[in-house]
Amino acid sequence: IPVVAALTGHSPAGGCVLALCCDYRVMARSIDPAKPFVIGLNEVQVGLVAPEGIQRLMRRVVGHHRAGVLLAGGQLVSAERALEIGLVDELADGASGVVERALAWLQTQLKLPHQPMLQTRAIARADLHEAMQPQHIQLDRFVEAWYSADAQAALQALVAKLGKA
């Protein structure tokens, strides 16, 4: 079944990973241009390394060079920039607009001849399935990294920063 992400706000880290696994991504524009909604893989900012499989997902969507730049800096990008670089497919106004556009995309897909659409989708997403194989995710290593000195220091700094906001 085709899967669409309806991103109604910020989508860092795990939210971005889930969106990268979808066939199509619709993200909300913030009502306050000074405080845009952001999306990205910010693992480096919290002292972690995004697993190879997750990095493959990012490369699959935005290309190798751009993914490398975003991943190495743990960058989050605004919804508008995400659209420019192909990280999201469409922007909409407000949560209801996002859901409406996401459902419209999905309904269009579901009206296509079923088997050809599904078979084409399976071929087009083969690299996504490969990226999510356990040897590329190494979940035990990722979880263990949360307890490293770098991750703990970065997380404590983030908590302190959020406490002052």
In short:
The protein is an alpha/beta fold and 165 residues long.
Q: Kindly state the mean pLDDT as a whole number?
A: 95
Task: Report the portion of residues in β strands.
Answer: 5-15%
Distance between the termini: 42 Å
Low-confidence stretches: none
Q: Record the strand order, biggest sheet.
A: 1-3-6
- The portion of residues assigned to helices is 55-70%
Structural class: alpha/beta
| Pattern of helices and strands | EEHEEHHEHEHHHHHH
Q: Main beta sheet: strand number and arrangement?
A: 3 strands, parallel
Envelope shape: globular
Radius of gyration: 17 Å
How many β-strands, per DSSP? 6
Tally of contiguous helical segments: 10
Report on this model:
- By secondary structure, this protein is α/β, with parallel strands linked by helices.
- Helix content is 58%, strand content 13%.
- The chain has helices spanning 14-20, 52-62, 64-73, 79-85, 94-110, 114-124, 126-131, 134-137, 139-145, 149-164; strands at residues 4-7, 11-12, 24-29, 38-40, 76-78, 90-93.
- The chain has a 3-stranded parallel beta sheet with strand order 1-3-6, with helices on both faces. The chain has a 3-stranded mixed beta sheet with strand order 2-4-5.
- The radius of gyration is 17 Å and the shape is globular.
Task: Itemize the secondary structure elements and their pairings.
Elements lengths: L3 E4 L3 E2 L1 H7 L3 E6 L8 E3 L11 H11 L1 H10 L2 E3 H7 L4 E4 H17 L3 H11 L1 H6 L2 H4 L1 H7 L3 H16 L1
Parallel strand pairs: 1-3, 2-4, 3-6
Antiparallel strand pairs: 4-5
